[in-house]
Amino acid sequence: QKKRRAATARRQHLKSAMLQLAVSEIEKETAAKEVEKQNYLAEHCPPLSLPGSMQELQELCKKLHAKIDSVDEERYDTEVKLQKTNKELEDLSQKLFDLRGKFKRPPLRRVRMSADAMLRALLGSKHKVCMDLRANLKQVKKEDTEKEKDLRDVGDWRKNIEEKSGMEGRKKMFEAGE
């Protein structure tokens, strides 16, 4: 029990000491960042002194405009680099998905569109050919085969019964049996 209390007390003491060290390190980092910021601003943004004459003011405005242009060019370059790296990241993540074999299926919408409308949407004003798919189909005529005729004749059972009824039907059956 005594050893456990001593161990927990030591752990708590070490934990508080680590937290104090972390707080002091964070304070040092924030102070260093502030100093770095002040140095950067002093280097890149000299204090503004307004001249008295009109010509000097015009010169100052020209310098400021030139500075603004250069900063805009830098900003544009960094934006382009950022877009390029984002695109590369997307491509690499897509390749990673492809290699894993897990594909995200995009939600598909059902679209009712005829072939003409589809070609018009794809080709625009270049599309002039009408796409009637049924017009180009061949007409196929069914030929009656003897097998089908026999099946039709056998299928009509009323006709067969009427033929076999009476004396003529019995005579035919008798002659067929011989």
TrEMBL record:
Keyword annotations from UniProtKB, A to Z: Acetylation, Actin-binding, Coiled coil, Muscle protein
Coiled-coil regions listed? 54-102
Pfam families per UniProt? Troponin (PF00992)
Does the UniProt entry include the keyword Cell membrane?
no
What are its GO cellular component terms?
troponin complex
Q: Which InterPro entries match?
A: Troponin, Troponin_I, Troponin_sf
Single GO molecular function: actin binding
Write out the GO biological process terms.
cardiac muscle contraction; skeletal muscle contraction
Subunit comment: Binds to actin and tropomyosin.
The Swiss-Prot or TrEMBL record describes its family as follows: Belongs to the troponin I family.
Q: What does this protein do?
A: Troponin I is the inhibitory subunit of troponin, the thin filament regulatory complex which confers calcium-sensitivity to striated muscle actomyosin ATPase activity.
Its recorded name reads Troponin I, fast skeletal muscle
Native organism is Alectura lathami
